[in-house]
Amino acid sequence: MELCSFLTLDSFITDPLTHEFMRKALLMSSLVAAVCGFLSSYLTLKGWALMGDAVSHSVMPGVVVAYALGLPFSLGAFIFGVGSVALIGFIKQKSRVKEDTVIGLVFTGFFALGIVLVSKIKSNIDLHSILFGSPLGISLSDVKQTIFISLLVVILLSIFRKDLMLYCFDPRHAKTVGINVFFLHYLLLTCLSLAAVVGLQSVGIILVVAMLITPGATAYLITDKFDNMTIISVLSAIISSIIGIYISFWFDLETGGSIVLAQTFIFLFAFLFAPRYGIFKFKKFFAGYK
Amino acid sequence: METINYQNFRIEAENICVDYNGKVALYDANLRLKPGQICGLVGMNGAGKTTFFNALTGFVNISKGKIRINGESVRSAQKDQTIAYVPQNEGIDSQFPVSVWDVVMMGRYGSMNIFRCPRESDIQAVKDAIERVDLTDHLSTPIGNLSGGQRKRTFLARAIAQRASILLLDEPFSGVDIRTEKLISELFIQFKNEGKTILLSTHDMIHVREFCDLVLLINKTVVAYGETSEVFTPENITTTFGGISPDFLFGPES
Questions:
Q1: CB A170 to CB B87 under 8 A?
Q2: Residues in contact with A43: Cβ distance below 8 Å, sequence separation at least 6, in sequence order
Q3: Confidence class of residue B252 from pLDDT cuts 50, 70 and 90?
Q4: What is the CA radius of gyration of chain B?
Q5: Pairing state between β B11-20 and B64-69
Q6: What is the pLDDT of residues B174-214, one digit of tens each?
Q7: Which superfamily does CATH assign the domain made up of B7-82+164-254 to?
Q8: A93–B81: do the CB atoms touch at under 8 Å?
Q9: Cα B184 from chain centroid?
């Protein structure tokens, strides 16, 4: 039955669009992907992949507590996201344990707390949708919140785009010319927590870190210009979301997993065929035959 | 142009101490530099050279002592773009996706509006700075494609574009080609004539004798400070380098 519809590309694309939940999922996931993709350039350049993983897992208890108290889940997530980073910094400073170990133990601790809380607070929280995302079942209040947070992050990143770039590149120079490095550090962390919150609706807590690092890594392989890197990162994130949702629709697969897999394939493609930094260095290849 | 008062001190550091989580990196260090002076900062790895720079730029807080830049606090020196820092080549991510132009433009950020939109004057300052370090052919080259010497010149251009009156240079001569070395030494003479104050760290004893009016020998604290001809003696150098004979230090390099 389904295979017949593949015969025309047209219906492959338009059929899902006849469902309202699909239109909403595509729009929301693209928005979320754009936000995460934008932030992704900074995180990959700053070397904050592990930090992204930590923050995104640590927001879990915040989301649960906020749901239980009837607060916006973004607020809870934000507090626990920033709190986890503060705790990581504190333990690192006061003990001899190495940083990556501290990051690992803090975020797994928070994550475990979240899981325990879900099992205790028997409400309408769906553990599965928090862990694996549910872009197809997103509620109206979630839509509003997602749009609000996304706009906030995009505006913040746009205003401080160049300062954040300088902060990632050479914080010492930033400080020397009177730019508030402390503020930029926490701005980036704030955006990271907020992006993790919106990202988890698309792909879930476990995979949201992929949304925050893979598009940036892909773009980093393709270009040597920072602005282009941001654009490519955002585009590759949006394209993967759309591909992922279509694939999951037609083949009845987990949506979050499909989106992240699409991102991974785009990264692998760049890894193999990127003009300058890909394994096969296509530019050189063609140049040789001119 | 502001007139340069050669009597006042550009940098005054009095009994400064820096510690990282209780571990002392620098203690009771003093330094006074006037406009037009070039001072060499000499010490072993871990002797506190970078820490000294970090204290002067305000990148780390001092736990004791006082720093005055042009008679004012470090914080107002930051706001006034007074100090420029030229990092070691190893101190920066050479694979970062920025071009020569982008890096030099960063020298102007501190005096731009919040969106960091370059004005006509900023663009001109960047162009002039790039011309002075002879990189006009590489305006849009990503820094990853530059040689070590070209990269060093890029960061020097950033300091020029910033129009800072104090330049702090971390190992300006390490890993550079002859051409860059010659260009940097010419620039030093120009900077001196413009009344800029230069503090540079180096491992190379020959450069100290060649460029530096003053030398500051440190090993967690100041071992000796003064005119190069008086202070830069084998005895002082031996003390600075923890008892290693200067013959050994000078041997392979000279």
A1: yes
A2: A49, A51, A52, A192, A212, A213, A216
A3: very low
A4: 18
A5: antiparallel
A6: 889 999 999 999 999 999 999 999 999 987 888 888 889 99
A7: P-loop containing nucleotide triphosphate hydrolases (3.40.50.300)
A8: no
A9: 12
